[in-house]
Amino acid sequence: MSIPTLVLLGAGGLAREVLAALRRTQEYRIFGFLDDDRALHSSMVDGVPVLGGLSDAGNYPRCSFLACAGSGTARAGMVQTLARSGVGEDRFATFVDPAVHLSDGCTVGAGSILLAGTVLTAAVTVGRHVAVMPNCTLTHDDVVEDYATLTSGVCLGGGVRIGSGAYLGMGATVRQGVRIGAGTVVGMGSAVLRDLPGGQTWAGVPARELRAAAERVPAAVPGPKNWKDPR
After folding, report:
1. CA distance 88 to 201
2. How far from 195 is each of 149, 163, 178, 181, CA to CA, in Å?
3. pTM
4. For 30-36, what is the mean pLDDT?
5. Could you say which of 27, 155, 187, 211 has the lowest number of CB atoms within 10 Å?
6. Averaged over 189-202, what is the pLDDT?
7. What is the CA radius of gyration of the chain?
8. Neighbours of 90 (CB within 10 A)
9. How many angstroms separate the CA atoms of 8 and 18, rounded?
């Protein structure tokens, strides 16, 4: 039985991590990278050639593809670029590292990446083109929608829903039953205790909306009435 051939989209940090994991599993033969950074074209990244830009995907009709950008917005752009080249969703691979604990009853959508040390406990649903980086914990009945990104060490309580394209920074934790809106960014190390609207940035313990927090800080703190700068 022949090993399927894979092209990685993007040649940055996530792509190199995926490449290292794929080399351990030998699940695919890695044909090369496609990246729109022209400075990388015809170069080698970790021993694998950068074949050209994303628009060249149509030149590889026998290859599968995996979008390896670190943000969901970038992955969505990659999928759209390939669609314009005639490459449909059926051509995208899914990669679940063998060191992921994936319980029966959990589902992972096409194009998604789950890296080593991640645990999906029970009835977890991961959508399409999701990136789950090492050592994340997704507990019972969690739903992670398309193009979301969970960076290293994220922990979700039971029944959490992560909206499409949301980004959770390293070590963020989310209380059970909480919903995070589409496109929202959660800063690393944050503790999310309540539902978050879409399209915002939250951080801290407990997490607060950053712009709102900034608006509460006075522009300047006045000194005593007769105070003079001694300089």
Report:
1. 32
2. 18, 11, 5, 8
3. 0.89
4. 97
5. 211
6. 97
7. 21
8. 7
9. 9
